[in-house]
Structure formats: C-alpha cells, structure tokens
Amino acid sequence: MVVLKFMVFATISCRFLWSLNTSRDDFELMDYTKLISEEHFAVGHPVVIVLPHGEQGSGNNAVFYLIKNLCAAVRWPIFVFNARYEMEANVFIETHKHGSYIILLSGPCQDWEEHISGFRQQLSILRFGNTWESWNPRAKFLVSVMSDCPHFYTTLISRAILNEFWSHGVVKALVLFKKSSEGRGKKSDQNTSHSTQDTHMEIQTWFPYKNSQRCDPAEGTVPVKVFTIRNFSYIRGNDIFKGHFIKNLHGCPIRVHVRIYQPFVNPPKRFWLNDSYYYDSYEDGLEIELLRIIGKSLNASLVIVD
C-alpha cells in the first residue's frame, strides 16, 4: 500500500484518490510532470509535492489528477505540503532527506510577481517549516506552472524562480510550462480550450559556467534556456537535469576559503594595492598546490580567501 503524507503530519492511503472524477484529456501539464518524475526522480526516495496558493477552477482537479497518478506509479513515498484537509491521524515528524520536489504554481499571468511571492512562501515552508531537517537543496526540483502564459511572462517567471533557487543553493531545477497557439505572442490570459495539436510544453532552465561571460546567475548574465517539448520521447531520451558544474568552467572564478595550518596552508603574502588597502595572496602550502592543480584541471580561476 502506498502511503501519502500531508504537511499536517497525517498519513492516509492513496486509495482515497481513486474516487476522484478527473479527465485525462485536460491535464497535459500534469502528464508531463508525472513523466519527468518517473524518468528522472530516484526510485524509493521521498517526492515532495507543494500545492499552489489559491488554486481555482480546474486547478484542484489537475492537482488531484497528478497526485493520483504519482501514487499509481508506486515508486516513491509521496509528501504533500499545504494540503487543505481536516483529518485525525497519528502525528509524526519526517527527518529523512527528501529525494525530489514538485512545486505547483497557479494564477493570472499578468500577476507574475504574485507567482514569485507565493513561490517564496512555498520554499520557506520547505526550508524553515516543521520538516526543515528533511530539506535537500541537492535534490531535483521541478516547478510546474499551471497557467498558459505567453513568452513575455514565462521568461520573467522562470528567471525569478531560478534566481530564487540559486539563492537557496539549488542548482538542479526546471520550470515547466504548458504553451498553446492562443497563448503565444499575447500578454493576456486565455481561457479558451485548445486541441492537443495546438499545445506543447516548454522546459526553461539555465546553465551557468558555460563561458567566462556567463559565470554567476547572481550577476544577471546567465540567460534562460527554452526547450520545446512536443512528445514524451524528448523526456525519455534526454538528461534534462544536466549538471551545472561541468569539467570546463571556462575561466569562471571559484571562491575557496582556507585557514592557515602549516605546512598545508602557509601564511599569505601581503601586498599594498592602489595606495588604499592590503591584499593577502595565498601562494604556498601543500593544499594550496593541490587547489591550483584542481583549478587548472577545471579551467577555473581560483579566489583563495580567509
């Protein structure tokens, strides 16, 4: 029996979801969310689903549709945060590290700042809430945006989400959008239903350290990459959670903190720069030499500081 665990720390069986009246045809975004989970989330490790703030209309059905199908996969323990249920059950505290995260966002496209405000609250619940010990920034994160937004808004939303992730130490993150022919090129929300052939998905992410001009996302120099997905084979045939830290860092700086401990780290040489301040340069020591070898092999610029 698969167990579904809610943020209210209640445990219930996934069987209660089988009675929900959901239609597969309306939930392409959730189908792709499930497929990405099956293809790229580690089996047996907990998957956390964070529900959107203030979902409306068919949003509830789509969320239940996703949870129901993830339960049916019988691959992971499922944790649902922000669940709106009142129930009596045994209280527990989860301390195992989470394996993967699915974060759901909803709301009007024009109010994209509201998306990000809600997203910050969702991250805050994960990192500082009652299950903070299970927070795992090294996990894979998938954010599914439950709004058909034009490109103008999707890039604003995805960049803000990826920036927020970066500030929390998360580097394996994707933002998934559903795109339709009606939604493209317009800065307004669309409520029209679309046929399957008019719909595709977009994955948006970024790849820091690709060249010396695109090192640190915090500097605003790393562009958002957009990948169009029209069928399931793209998900199955690609490593969409590519590692950001590759073998060649293209001269990007790496900051290394050291402390003096001879003979491994010898005291630095001090230089007076620009007639204004001293600069400490760590040049000697066994570990300093080792750092230089590592930096050279990665084509990285080392910044060694106290």
CATH class descriptor of the largest domain: Alpha Beta
Mean of residue pLDDT values: 79
CATH architectural label of the largest domain: 3-Layer(aba) Sandwich
Level of helix content? Answer: 25-40%
- How is the main sheet built? 9 strands, mixed
| Residue windows where pLDDT falls under 50 for at least 5 positions | 1-13, 18-23, 83-93, 185-197
SS-derived structural category: alpha/beta
Give the CA-based shape.
elongated
Order of helices and strands: EEHEHEEHEHEEEHEEEHE
Strand order of the largest sheet: 2-1-4-3-5-6-7-8-9
Keywords: Signal
Signal peptide: 1-19
Written description of the protein model:
- With 306 residues, the chain is an alpha/beta fold.
- The chain has 2 domains: 3-237, Rossmann fold (3-Layer(aba) Sandwich), CATH 3.40.50; 253-305, no CATH class.
- Helix content is 26%, strand content 22%.
- It is built from 6 helices and 13 strands.
- It has helices at residues 28-40, 59-73, 112-128, 151-167, 232-237, 286-297, and strands at 3-6, 11-13, 47-50, 78-81, 100-105, 140-145, 173-180, 199-205, 225-229, 253-257, 269-273, 277-281, 301-305.
- The strands form 3 sheets. It has a 9-stranded mixed beta sheet, sandwiched between helices. A two-stranded parallel ribbon has the order 10-13.
- The protein is elongated.
- The protein starts with a strand and ends with a strand.
- Keywords: Signal.
- Residues 1-19 form the signal peptide.
